[in-house]
Amino acid sequence: MTISVVIADDQALVRGGFAVMVGAAADMTVLGEAGNGAEAVALVRKHHPAVVLMDIRMPVLDGIEATRAITADPDTAGVRVLILTTFDLDDYVYRALRAGASGFLLKDTAPEELLSAIRTLAAGDALLAPGITRRLIREFAARPEREERPSHELLESLSVREREVLAEVAGGWSNAEIGERLHISAATAKTHVSRLLMKLDAHDRAQLVMIAYETRLVTPS
């Protein structure tokens, strides 16, 4: 199956480079290029790609608001947004994840890693490796935006096992790793994660990480 991609970046050379890279992959096709966030949202609504490569700093509408517009629209909520940034500790990255982005990569990432990331998101997984997740957690926990944190009532519908799985997801572990850590099968771990996504109305695993820390189910150590 061919993975459809939209590329949004205000720098034409950067945008063109990504387009050539993605277009050269046998299992991918570029549906369009956008020079700002408004154009990106319009292209997504028109083409419904599997993945959007989204720059953060763009004119007219930045990547954060464009991501929020895409993921909040029921018609395009299934589109995965991959944030591309120059700095891995960019404050905007964390705001973008809150807005519904499924992961992020540095713009100088090796071509094969970028293509792998696109495939990961297209398969429905969030691009949050343990190391990236833990750095995200440290940054996120240091931000005092308590008014945005949901109530503990969010967790009341979860079983003890589901809370354990949510805590492991917050550590950035894969389904297989969660299975090993909790002594259950990878398939059972996947089932628990699917139920968590449904019960917590989460876009993907990246959002589960946010919920786990916003509700203080887990705290940075």
Structure description:
The protein has 221 residues and is an alpha/beta fold. The chain has two domains: 3-127, Response regulator (Rossmann fold, 3-Layer(aba) Sandwich); 141-214, Arc Repressor Mutant, subunit A. Helix content is 49%, strand content 13%. Strands 2-1-3-4-5 form a five-stranded parallel β-sheet, with helices on both faces. Helix 1 links the parallel strand 1 (3-8) and strand 2 (28-34). Helix 7 packs across helix 8 (175-182), helix 7 crosses helix 9 (186-199) and helix 8 packs across helix 9 (186-199).
What is the makeup of the main sheet? Answer: 5 strands, parallel
**Could you say what the CATH architecture of the largest domain is?**
3-Layer(aba) Sandwich
Order of helices and strands: EHEHEHEHEHHHHHH
- Mean pLDDT across the residues is 85
Strand residues, percent: 5-15%
Pick out its properties:
221 residues, alpha/beta, Rossmann fold, Arc Repressor Mutant, subunit A, five-stranded parallel sheet, globular
Describe the structure concisely.
The chain is of the alpha/beta class. It has helices at 12-23, 37-47, 63-72, 91-99, 111-122, 130-141, 160-170, 175-182, 186-199, 205-214; strands spanning 3-8, 28-34, 51-55, 80-85, 103-106.
Topology:
Blueprint: E1 3-8, H1 12-23, E2 28-34, H2 37-47, E3 51-55, H3 63-72, E4 80-85, H4 91-99, E5 103-106, H5 111-122, H6 130-141, H7 160-170, H8 175-182, H9 186-199, H10 205-214
Parallel strand pairs: 1-2, 1-3, 3-4, 4-5
